[in-house]
Amino acid sequence: MAGIMRENGLKSRTVHKYKATTHSKHNHPVHDHVLNQTFQAERPNQVWMSDITYVWPIEGWLYVASIMDLFTRKIVGWKADSRMTKELVMAALEQAYEREKPDDGVLHHSDRGSQYASREYRDKLKEYQMIGSMSRKGNGYDNACIESFHSVIKRELIHLETYETRARAKRDIWEYIDLWYNRVRIHSSIGYKTPVQYHSMYDHPPMCHLLLLFYCLGQGTDAWKFPNDEYNRSN
Asked: Name one GO molecular function term (predicted).
């Protein structure tokens, strides 16, 4: 049966073992539950939600830390590594900050994992003038939006592949997030727009958006090209 499926280009969905990505039994201080399940925002970079998930290449586990902007549903930062450390989540936060350059006062929400509760991560939030918020103990729904994204990427990508190496998995995750999820995949929660499109509509009134389209058409195909070295710059 497996051979027949391979010949026809079919892949089966497989059940993978669970691996915990949260170590909430620690002595670090935790932030209050400021978000309080208010899964709405009025502008980009008002609320960010963070979480860690995992991939299971044959080579060994790969942990993926992601940060979502609640208003646009865009993944503003993500990093992947073989170890689930505070350095991993800090790298994702630093990438998000450099990409978005948000104003002060971003509400940053995460679970109570030791990585997010570490002194270094809390210091980084202070450096960026962000407000910390953490889920209540044992309440996964408090971080539902970013956990939903991780369910989607597993369903649409990870569960459909058998990865030999972490490098191949990381490359596919980059393509999925930065080229597909943020730029092409529409989201019902933002009016069936893409995250990049929704952010652009907020930044530019409709007439400016139309003028930008005419400009790109006048410049030819070069105006639409995506940089070939974007992956290397991002990772």
From this structure: nucleic acid binding
Share of the chain above pLDDT 70, in %: 74
Q: What is the edge-to-edge ordering of all strands in the sheet holding 131-134?
A: 75-81, 62-69, 47-55, 107-110, 131-134
21 in Cβ contact with 52 (< 8 Å): yes
The number of folded domains in the chain is 1
53 band by pLDDT with thresholds 50, 70 and 90: very high
Provide the whole-model pTM: 0.79
Residue 81 is part of which domain span?
19-185
The encoded tokens of residue 79 equal 């990093």
Contact at 8 Å (CB) between 122 and 129?
no
pLDDT tens digits, residue range 138-152?
Answer: 666 788 999 999 999
Give the N- to C-terminal CA distance of the chain in Å, as an integer: 38
